[in-house]
Amino acid sequence: MTVFTGCDCDNLMRSQFYVILCSLVPISALLLTSDADALQVIGGSVTAVQGGTAILPCYVIDTNDDLTQISWQRKTREKPRNDNFLTILPREGAQFVNGDDDRFKYIGNFNDKNGTLQLSNVALKDEGSYTCIFTFFPSGNQKTDIPLKLFVPPFTSVKDNLPTLGTEEVLFATCTAAGSKPPAEVRWLTGALGDKVKTTTNSTQYDNDTTTTVSSLFGVPTREINGHQVQCVISGDSLSKEETLPFTIQVYFSPTEVNIKKISEDSFECVTEANPNAKFTWSRSGQPLPQPGVKVEGAKLQLLSLTSDLNGLYRCEASNTYGKKHGQLYVHVVSVGASAAAWALFGVLLSLNVVGAAVWYFYKLQSGGQP
């Protein structure tokens, strides 16, 4: 057994006290480190559609430290420098810093250590990084970054290039997805047309990271291709579903040869092909239309009473924005004697290079020589 002197005893006590202090410090530091390691600030990246609502999640788990304040910072397209814009205090609640922005709404709960924000009417200027900062006692500040990415749906349209009849390849139409982020895909569905048409696609990117994509439809403008249905299909991450824009290929041309055909005993119709549809005008050469002897409705001419004052050369003009042509109808009423009252009618159709003409003779049969 070892015996210590008074002096040695004092040294031993001092040594033991030192050992005790040295052993306590690492244990305390270990406890603080363990609590800080357990604490987690939960956030995450967010994607929103322009004009919609974004939820910026931020909350803390696994800590018993006292929360004294929640702060929000942002670095966005509009504010490229780090900007303190919102502080949340236990009693005062949410308070804006450096100017209000009522689109932000605090939807978390301070007591639950939840700093989540809601941002309504999201715009491209809001895209960037948001930082949520929790101030705890005694562990200090804990934070996380929340990237906000914006999708911008395109403005879509199909434009007719108004091609006219011809034999050379021309542009029929363009389909546009304008101002999309990320870029939209634009394609044509042409069905049975096959290799009678072809497409090209071009894109233009702007400084704000939006892109305009244009797909063009080409072909030879013939009458056979006129009226065919095609579709422009637009798709992309910024759209919840594909958008389909139907389009009817239009080949525009002036009225073709104008013919006048009989549709009843006393009615005639002016017939032609045109795109857009022709408008019809009836007139009588050298004199006005006999009223009330005739009735005109668009392309149709009806003779209401067969008398000699209807005699003359009638002209039907078909016109649209691309040109005009006409056809002619000659009417001649002849009186003859007969034992019974009746009407007789026959016609001879004359074919001309440019103008369709018809000559119609109306024979008025008389009874007892009376008209």
Automatic annotation (TrEMBL):
Keyword Disulfide bond carried by entry: yes
Keywords assigned: Cell adhesion, Disulfide bond, Glycoprotein, Membrane, Repeat, Signal, Transmembrane, Transmembrane helix
GO BP annotations, alphabetical order: heterophilic cell-cell adhesion via plasma membrane cell adhesion molecules; homophilic cell adhesion via plasma membrane adhesion molecules
TM stretches of this protein: 340-363
Ig-like domain sequence ranges: 26-149, 153-244, 246-335
Keyword Ribosomal protein included in the entry's annotation: no
Pfam families (UniProt xref): C2-set_2 (PF08205), Ig_3 (PF13927), V-set (PF07686)
Subcellular location(s) per record: Membrane
InterPro entries (alphabetical): CD80_C2-set, Ig-like_dom, Ig-like_dom_sf, Ig-like_fold, Ig_sub, Ig_sub2, Ig_V-set, Nectin/Nectin-like
Cellular component GO terms, alphabetical: adherens junction; membrane
Record membrane topology: Single-pass membrane protein
Protein family membership: Belongs to the nectin family.
Protein's name in the database: Nectin-4
Species of origin: Oreochromis niloticus (Nile tilapia)
Upper classification of the organism: Eukaryota, Metazoa, Chordata, Craniata, Vertebrata
